[in-house]
Design goal:
It contains 11 helices and 20 strands. By secondary structure, it is an alpha+beta fold. It has a 6-stranded antiparallel beta sheet, with no helix packed on it. A 6-stranded mixed beta sheet has the order 15-14-13-16-17-18, sandwiched between helices. The protein has a two-stranded antiparallel ribbon with strand order 2-3. Strand 16, helix 4 and strand 17 form a beta-alpha-beta unit. Helix 3 runs parallel beside helix 4, helix 6 packs across helix 9 and helix 7 crosses helix 11.
């Protein structure tokens, strides 16, 4: 085991007494508390999520991995000579100072309530309970006040990961196909490097799409089944030549329907990544060869609703500036479409960041699914029993998550879009509609450029995957998933 004298970054830690083989353990129940216990490396009761408090030095929140309870304290006259004791609560953590100290030739840390002088100790004869006591200067005077920290590696989640690519294979898309093919190894390496997955936990599928006759005579969709062999996926992409397509809109609706019906693992986190620079038929674009929608009467809004209920998250990688320059409704349509599944539209203006966008989308979805599993019952209770709106639920959960120091994988990418109020209204119309016919006559024209001026010409775009405090937008995705699966 490797121990350090203090936590050095946000993460999960086991906290050990300096010179004894005892660890701080959560003791929930009717009289909750903390105790010192012999080592149990697999027990989540001995694992603590420590998160730095922004803007404060050496101040952290402390949350039990076992049940996400935050550490607070109680202080009364009869709690160990009035010093009190820390304990886990069903709520956020208070702020705790973890202060490095060197004494008697050893370096360690003391844990104190932020702004207070007394520290964690366990000095009540005959008891292993953790209490507060005054800070001793020497290790030998207060051996149970001195702690070291073991960073726990990321634990692989129980759920594997299935990713289905929906790749536009029409004339303008060859550079994107080539980049996805060349980047598939990078995508796999990014997903595996975080320690959450082994290579065999990840399956990739591919559905290429073009259009219906007479717009395109080659194929409507072309399906490739899930595989754990990334080389096989690269070969499938290499076999695609971007050509044809006819009019502007393509057969995205058919591809979405095929993705919904794919051979998903029941226990997997299910992610669909649609890469395109055009909309589906039937949303009201000029020059649409099938203005009433897909010739097979597949409605993309209905498909997205079914995907959301089935736990399939849709991410749309919008190839810009083409999508927003050539189509007046596509951007808002896709924003509404992905929201039905708890997904996201990600703008792509620089081919070099495509692999990062794909991997980052998947990792965001994985973290979302973990939170959905933990909070679905709570969210549905808020909606059904307390009559709270999705926005109210999201606000409350976000406050709780921030206070508890919840971290989330986050795809950070340069935003290329101008903020347009009417565009946001249009997206909500698409989101709330059951089908295209209900929505498209309500959509209003959005004036002005949709793309920021600096991105109208070719410029570089930055993208990165970071672990950050969970955002309100991410909580809104979680809440939408919880509500869809309860409907």
């Amino acid at each position: 085991m490797t121990y350090q004298s203090k936590p050095i970054s946000n993460g999960v830690y086991r906290i050990k007494v300096l010179n004894e083989n005892n660890f701080i353990e959560s003791a929930p129940g009717n009289n909750p508390g903390l105790k010192l216990a012999s080592p149990s490396p697999d027990s989540n009761k001995q694992k603590w999520t420590l998160t730095k408090v922004p803007g404060q030095s050496n101040v952290w929140t402390m949350v039990s991995v076992e049940d996400q309870s935050g550490i607070t304290y109680k202080k009364t006259a009869d709690t160990y000579w009035g010093y009190g004791y820390p304990y886990p609560q069903n709520g956020p953590s208070l702020n705790w100072s973890i202060l490095e100290r060197t004494s008697d030739g050893q370096t360690f840390s003391k844990i104190k309530l932020s702004g207070e002088s007394n520290c964690f100790d366990s000095c009540d004869p005959g008891s292993d309970a953790v209490n507060f006591y005054y800070d001793h200067a020497h290790v030998y005077d207060g051996p149970n006040q001195c702690f070291v920290f073991e960073l726990v590696p990321n634990v692989k989640p129980s759920a594997p990961l299935d990713i289905m690519f929906l790749q536009d294979a029409t004339g303008s898309q060859q550079p994107y196909i080539n980049t996805a093919r060349n980047g598939i190894t990078q995508i796999c390496d990014t997903l595996v490097s975080g320690g959450k997955f082994a290579p065999n936990d990840i399956r990739f599928g591919l559905i290429a799409f073009r259009d219906h006759p007479p717009q395109d005579q080659s194929f409507v969709i072309q399906e490739y089944p899930f595989t754990t062999d990334s080389g096989n996926v690269a070969s499938n992409l290499a076999g695609l030549t971007a050509t044809g397509g006819g009019d502007g809109p393509e057969s995205q609706s058919d591809a979405l329907s095929a993705a919904y019906r794919a051979d998903w693992k029941d226990e997997a986190t299910k992610v669909v990544v649609l890469v395109t620079d055009s909309p589906p038929h039937g949303i009201g674009e000029d020059g649409d060869g099938f203005p009433k929608g897909c010739p097979l009467q597949i409605d993309p809004l209905r498909v997205a609703t079914r995907m959301g209920r089935a736990g399939i998250t849709l991410y749309v990688i919008a190839c810009e500036p083409t999508l927003s320059q050539y189509y007046k409704r596509a951007c808002d349509f896709y924003q509404g479409l992905v929201k039905k599944t708890g997904g996201r539209v990600v703008n792509l203006g620089d081919l070099n960041v495509l692999p990062t966008l794909i991997a980052g989308s998947a990792l965001e979805a994985v973290d979302n699914e973990i939170l959905v599993t933990k909070h679905q019952v709570e969210v549905r209770s808020m909606a059904n029993n307390q009559n709270m709106s999705a926005g109210e639920i999201s606000q409350r959960l976000h406050e709780d998550f921030v206070a508890a120091g919840v971290q989330h994988s986050t795809l950070v990418v340069d935003n290329m879009y101008e903020q347009r109020t009417q565009g946001d209204r249009n997206a909500e119309i698409w989101f709330n509609a059951e089908d295209l016919d209900e929505a498209k006559d309500k959509i209003q024209q959005v004036e002005g450029n949709r793309i920021l001026e600096k991105y109208l010409s070719e410029v570089s775009q930055s993208a990165a995957i970071e672990t950050q405090p969970i955002s309100l937008a991410q909580v809104e995705m979680v809440v939408q998933k919880c509500l869809m699966r309860g409907s």
